[in-house]
Amino acid sequence: MQSSIAEKLPYASGIDALYYFAQSGAFYDRLYEEIIHQIEEKKAYFKSLNYQHADNDITVTINGIDVIYSGMGRDGFHWFNHDFFRAGFKDPEKAMNIHNIRIQLNAIGIYTLGLKSLIEYVNTKFLGEYTMRVFPITRIDLNMFIQHDFSYLRKEMILSKKQNHSANIGERSNAYELETYYVGKKPFLLRVYNKHKELATATPIKREIMHNHFGIHGMDLEKPIFNVEFEMHREYLKQYGIDTIDDALKHAKVLFKNACDQIRLIDPSSVSEKTLQSSNRKRASTLPVWDHIKYHYDITDFMQIDTPLEKIEKISFRYSLQDAEKSIKKVITRLLVHKNDPTLLFFLDVLQKAKAEFDMRQRIKNLHEQHTEDQSQPTFEEELRTYSDEGLWNLDTRLSIEMDGLDRDSPLYEDLSYRYIVLTNEMQRRKLLPEAF
Predict the structure, then answer these.
(1) Residue 73's beta-bridge partner residues?
(2) Phi and psi torsions of 364, nearest 5°
(3) How far is C-alpha 396 from the chain's CA centre?
């Protein structure tokens, strides 16, 4: 491809995924206990209905935002899904060398709200007072969507400065065309893939969001659109002194340009076929479209997409009819495989029986709850009386750290100050502190 043609290609550069830790604050222990309490409460509710539940039937509310439980991962974190992000929380008393909170921002959230707004939504609205406002980055995917067909790409055209990358070049194709090229492995890798093919199996919501994004940037949805994406993990980023979200966003342009230099696509027409198949292929010129991608990457416009937090509506997750349709189709398919042809009367009968059984279980549960006294939430003073002496000293240390550097006029400082006074009173009551003169 000629340079003049490459310069006219529509593109959209940005960040496709962002994973990070959130350093937990003094109130995290209470949050974790509340999360576990909600999970156990939902399990008890399902048990009272004699309902065989799955993890994703459990919805937990954190700071007024609903998230769906997806179970405990091998990493020891309890994971929760939101339309815009994924959040993990671990027991603060276990694996104490690892941060307690993990966040993974997904494409739907990023392209719906804008990355800047999504970060603020998660860190301010969702996590709020449970963090110390320190967010070490663990992974960032820098990408560019481009109106270009990379189906001609072959391994000989990929040149990496890292020797081990030559052994880590993979491709996935169907009978007709290239779908994806993978280069490298964690903590640094490149993916070049057909975005249309990927969206073919995506949810209707994601397809609509991405098609709108492409249209805004002047791309023709009837023509090929590929994604050039560099996946960078913490181990790689730390080589460049990048530790936090802010560091990564500030240096995103330089990181992408440097990545394009580390893994280069070369122009096969600039050298002979014999040279292309030899170690001398590094003499080949860079593919013009690769230079176009390298020099045009910028996230300035991408970061300006801004959705005010007050306009972001709370999303409540419910098991929808669309979700149910998928499960019902599987059941019908299984019946047909076993030579059973279900009728409309069959489904009507099942529906009526299920509703009658659910109503009966719900009535039993309501009768049980009428005989159970409501227990009000303990005050902070009452809660502190349940702490051990060591627990009070630990809370004293964490409150002091969290108050340090805060603006004294901020609502958070006022709340922390009140709690510190209550804590001090309890410690004096137990004679853990010297009496004031």
Answers:
(1) none
(2) -60, -45
(3) 33
Q: Give φ, ψ of 194 to 5 degrees.
A: -75, 110
d(CA 323, CA 256): 38
Q: Kindly report the CA angle at 80 between 144 and 203, in degrees rounded to 5?
A: 50
Q: Measuring CA to CA, how many Å separate 253 from each of 12, 80, 184, 232?
A: 13, 31, 20, 13
384 Cβ contact partners less than 8 Å away, ≥ 6 residues apart: 392, 422, 423, 426
- Residue whose pair of structure tokens reads 């003169």 in the numeric block: 437
For residue 244, the one-letter residue type is T
- Strands 101-105 and 226-233: what pairing? unpaired
Here the tokens at position 260 are 């394009």
Query: Which residue intervals of 121-228 are DSSP H helices?
Result: 195-199, 204-216
Q: How many CB atoms lie within 10 A of CB 251?
A: 15
Tens-digit pLDDT profile for residues 297-344: 999 999 988 777 666 655 444 455 666 676 687 778 778 877 888 888
| Max CA pair span of the chain | 90
Q: Say how many C-beta atoms besides its own lie within 10 A of residue 73's C-beta.
A: 12
pTM score, two decimals? 0.72
CA pair distance 332, 319, nearest whole angstrom: 19
Give the Cα separation of 317 and 330 in Å (integer): 23
- List alpha helices for 371-410, DSSP H: 380-384, 389-403
